[in-house]
Hints:
alpha+beta; three-stranded antiparallel beta sheet; 10 strands; elongated
Amino acid sequence: ATTGTVKKKYPSQEYLKSILDYNPETGIFTWKPRKREMFKTERAFKTWNSRFSGVKAGSVHYPCGVDSVSYIVIRIKNKSLKAHRLAFLYMDGSIPCEIDHDDGCGTNNKWLNINPSNRVHNSRNLGISRRNKSGATGVTWDKKLNKWHAKIINKHIGYFADIEDAKRARKSAEVLMGFNKNHGEKRR
Length: 188
């Protein structure tokens, strides 16, 4: 279930469609030719259309550094806007508060890869932490018991002598709790 939509700072769907094309199969935005009345001078009009018309829009943005999840950002009227939000506006006319990239790749904005979401659902499609030592989300070594401990959302699943049994138990719990099939996978 989703909650609310985002409206602030985003252009109207009509304006967005007048300046950009979106290909739902590739997830790529391209700039459309602009009309003369959008520019102060004839020179600016010709320069913009010769440089940008038909060109892929946006650039990769790393909000927390190069090792973080990256997104495509497109500048419209001096505002940096995330392409996955623009895809929803373009296709649906609204922008969900949260958007989940099914494959975990923030730059893959194919229409079938992005879904309206909420904070809980989005957290059930995270990649494995770089700090993880077991190779499986929710599986840690318990030194006192000398066993692998499997848990999910701070709930105990069990202790296991074999790490593979702990991993299977964790994956089974993920399925029962509605986690995305890609949760806990290594990303990039």
